[in-house]
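Reopening this ticket.

The earlier resolution said the output was attached, but the attachment link was broken on my side. Pasting everything inline this time so it's all in one place.
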Amino acid sequence: MKIEKANSGFLTNFEVLDFLRSRGAKIDPMGCLGAVAASECKVYEYLLKTPACNQTRESIDEFVTRCESLKLTNADKLNVINWRPSSAADVYAMIEDCGRRFSKDERGEAHNEDERVEEFLELVKEVLPPSPPKPEAMTE
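Inline output:
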């Protein structure tokens, strides 16, 4: 593998998962055999347990487009795409200075930050597919 452009940007978990799939990564009980390294198979196996396993390029593009008015940083968008918050507490933990940033709209007008966080959560739930069920939830 040759590095074409070092440090050219951040990758979402979906992009890493998609890349590993294209290289032939699989969950293999006999160990990781073939074109990918054992470490890549471990990363692949981990990513299958994250929201990335249900995402598509289209859902990510739609999310990025629809949240433009919120003026999220690239790091904020990456956190949300990778971890798909499901509660207001998650949003406050993922988005830097969330309270201040969600208390004003794109024109600088004051808004109820709690309402804007709930609207943002609705956008996330509408656009980004749900996370896979946790293994213990599947066995109950």
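Reporter confirms the inline version is readable. The radius of gyration is 18 Å. Residues 113-127 form the longest helix (15 residues).
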